[in-house]
TrEMBL record:
Record's protein name: Ferric reductase like transmembrane component
Transmembrane segments: 6-30, 51-69, 89-112, 124-143, 149-168
Keywords for this protein: Membrane, Transmembrane, Transmembrane helix
Organism whose genome encodes this protein: Mycolicibacterium chubuense
Top-level taxonomic group: Bacteria
Length: 186
């Protein structure tokens, strides 16, 4: 495979991973609400959330693998674990490394959910709120397509989806907070 093909596939998998992680983030919030989303029952929303998270994680792994073999990116194994050491755009790639490290923690905690217990799982899962914006900033700073209109529109759309889901979650009538509201009225 040529260097140009590795670079193009690496970029494409990174962009697609951002879309899947956006879907996962928004549906993760929707799952906590207990409400149906687009006529899907709650269990289906949770299943699509898990699929999107798994697909996004797989795409991130492919993204890293392809760029590792691309001579232009000049990635070393340490760059996948320790942030801000990369030779190419160290700050932007460091943010990607940081997002990847957090993604690994969230993914492993998801796999060990039944052994960790619900409380520990939820506490670790809260870190996903930090993962997504760091990944977005990585894409905007490190991506060679970051100045193209189509990519800015895609990134902006992803930001609108996650911001909308977060605003919905922070509303007082979010179902998760129903017990708190009921107790406050008493």
């Amino acid at each position: 495979m040529t260097s140009g093909a590795l670079w193009a596939l690496g970029r494409g998998t990174g962009i697609t991973a951002l879309v899947f992680l956006t879907i996962s983030q928004a549906l993760g919030i929707a799952t906590r609400s207990g409400r149906r989303v687009a006529a899907l029952p709650r269990f289906a929303v949770a299943d699509v959330h898990r699929f999107a998270a798994l697909a996004g994680t797989g795409l991130v792994a492919l993204h890293l693998t392809l760029l590792f073999f691309d001579p232009y990116a000049q990635l070393r194994l340490v760059d996948f674990v320790v942030p801000f050491l990369a030779a190419y755009r160290p700050v932007w790639l460091g943010l990607g490394t940081l997002a990847c490290d957090v993604l690994v923690v969230v993914a492993v905690s998801s796999l060990l959910r039944h052994r960790l217990g619900l409380r520990a799982f939820r506490a670790i899962h809260w870190v996903a709120y930090a993962l997504w914006p760091v990944a977005l900033v990585h894409a905007l700073g490190a991506g060679t397509d970051s100045q193209r209109v189509w990519f800015l529109a895609l990134a902006g759309g992803c930001a609108v989806v996650v911001a909308g889901a977060l605003m919905w979650r922070l509303r007082a009538d979010f179902v998760e907070y129903a017990d708190t509201r009921t107790e406050a009225r008493r």
